Amino acid sequence: xxxxxxxxxxxxxxxxxxxxxxxxxxxxxxxxxxxxxxxxxxxxxxxxxxxxxxxxxxxxxxxxxxxxxxxxxxxxxxxxxxxxxxxxxxxxxxxxxxxxxxxxxxxxxxxxxxxxxxxxxxxxxxxxxxxxxxxxxxxxxxxxxxxxxxxxxxxxxxxxxxxxxxxxxxxxxxxxxxxxxxxxxxxxxxxxxxxxxxxxxxxxxxxxxxxxxxxxxxxxxxxxxxxxxxxxxxxxxxxxxxxxxxxxxxxxxxxxxxxxxxxxxxxxxxxxxxxxxxxxxxxxxxxxxxxxxxxxxxxxxxxxxxxxxxxxxxxxxxxxxxxxxxxxxxxxxxxxxxxxxxxxxxxxxxxxxxxxxxxxxxxxx
Length: 365
What we know:
The chain has 365 residues and is an alpha/beta fold. The protein has twelve helices and eleven strands. The longest helix is centred in the C-terminal third of the chain and has 26 residues. It starts with 20 loop residues before the first strand and ends in a 5-residue tail after the last helix.
């Protein structure tokens, strides 16, 4: 791979026709590196260019468009991802993130642990200028109206300014990826009233309400929503801290899986049920596909200088293929640049301290 310089500000919008290269960490997936490689093969046949970082001997034969870098060392299950990233430069996720930082690839997909992806991305690709914290955002597979939930695991603890910035990030993602013209943004709380929730939520609520007053800005703030409203169509973007968001995501996915299994069992429980199942097979298959987390490709890692996508480690090749294709499309359509410009225009970026800004001004005397 040819070396390059680490990107500074988010890159200018790339040519829409040019295919982007995606760096993929194969280690850490529940079904093994070969399953990730099989997903990469599917994505390559659909036009993506991929660099796989993993144990070359386990990845099998791959089609044109897929390059392999032998990187058998994994830190996906490390208890201290930040220390592991610093101490293990040969790890597959570190090499993949470094390839993105150096310009050999334009997006990152990590099949292993979220912590390792976040640490490797932060240390190598780095945060975009003015970003407090990267966030994981995922479009939940709600029929007819997907809901973008963030943060779903990058930040267990947050401050007011983090949640406010997440709101702008999520709105930009909903506009760019889902085509929502002016997303409705809400905070996840234990009640709809502004005074409900923690001090953090009340402070974030007040600032978001002020920023969206008078109908200005890129989104409409609709206040607080409760857990039952996450899939109820009340908001297009729901903002919370990474601990609460991860719990909400896993609960939603678990209920969906249980419900689909119950429908399947009911359809097979009697001859009449099996007949009804045959008649409804096409409709039920479409419903199942709508709720399938693998169809979403995983969570978008926002707030870095290049795009990251973090699929579930339990995904099959279908899910990993979708993750790679989503990352390629996001890079090609300049999701990072568009998100950053939306934050800049809204004045939602972190400002440098006054002393730092003064030091950067030219001397005229």
